[in-house]
Specification:
The structure is a single chain. The chain is of the alpha+beta class and about 80 residues long. The chain has one domain (about 5-80): 2-Layer Sandwich (Ribosomal Protein S8, Chain: A, domain 1), CATH 3.30.1370. It has three helices and four strands. The protein has helices spanning about 15-30, 45-55, 60, and strands at about 5, 35-40, 65-70, 80. The chain has a four-stranded mixed sheet with strand order 1-2-4-3, covered by helices on one side. The radius of gyration is 12 Å and the shape is globular.
Length: about 80
């Protein structure tokens, strides 16, 4: 199964760039019909993970994917599942 991966470590302190990368990865998954996207906000203080979850919880984004899974073995990782 193909999956996309987005590591946010490099842009952790650039809010607009984070939003644009999250938009890009969601659109790419939809365009390529990829069922799984892995987002790595990293462990840190948890602020970046909260930002990613707030982004994914927006109504216009939420309707695009099936579910979000927080990795219970790795706090610094989030999976977005799509249904095609």
């Amino acid at each position: 199964m193909a999956k996309l991966k987005l590591d946010l470590h490099e842009i952790y302190n650039r809010g607009k760039e984070i939003d644009s990368e999250l938009n890009r990865i969601v659109e790419e998954a939809i365009d390529r019909k990829i069922k799984l996207v892995e987002i790595i906000p990293g462990k840190g203080s948890g602020q970046l993970k909260k930002k990613v979850l707030r982004f994914l919880n927006q109504g216009h984004i939420k309707k695009l994917y099936h579910r979000v899974e927080k990795d219970d073995k790795n706090f610094g990782r989030i999976f977005i599942h799509f249904r095609f």
